[in-house]
Amino acid sequence: MSTPAGHSPQPFHHGPPPGGPWGAPVPPPVTRRIPEDQPFVVRPNVVKRGLLMMGVVLVLILPIACCAGLGVVNSADPQLRSQSVVGLLAVVGCLLALIAVPLGIQLWLIGSGGPVLALGPAGLWIRTRPTRGQAIWLPWEGVAQISRRRWSLEKMLVVTPRDARVLQNLGAFTALDGAALNAFYGSGLVATLNFADRPEAEIMAAVAHYSAGRCQLT
Fold it and tell me: Which stretches are tagged as biased composition: Pro residues (predicted)?
């Protein structure tokens, strides 16, 4: 069929154009580590987290050790008492080692992953996994809400994207971590507030400044 004079031929589409209203969203940039050249960068405070974890461990172990120690002290046989003290110290040391090793590995993973959040005029970088460095970039227009939520000893900055599909295809481990974070905080994109190298008030002020009213803050 010939094209009428004065009209250009219309292209034939086999389907909806990519990224259109019927197509999949354009995948956001993903990196192994949040770039540190952003205007506002938040890093994890591993020392603060480690001290708190150590305190929790001592609170759990010391009562048990004290009760066992009282039983040893009240023992009538001096020789048995000395042997029991050595055994008790060995047991407490083993318990501390069993707890300290996995906690140390977790702290190393958190600290070696780099920053947890970075803000700029165009958008933000945020980790997709709490103990690894993988991060995603979202423009402020792509963020539906930023809120603060607490669970147990952790207080988090929670970022909810407008389109949840941006979190797809980030890997099986990211999906597993995201499911757990969704259960606790309502989103898989979180950054620590109380274990960061900056005060919470400073972080929230920076979020309000750089977002400039383009997303809801609660």
Answer: 14-29
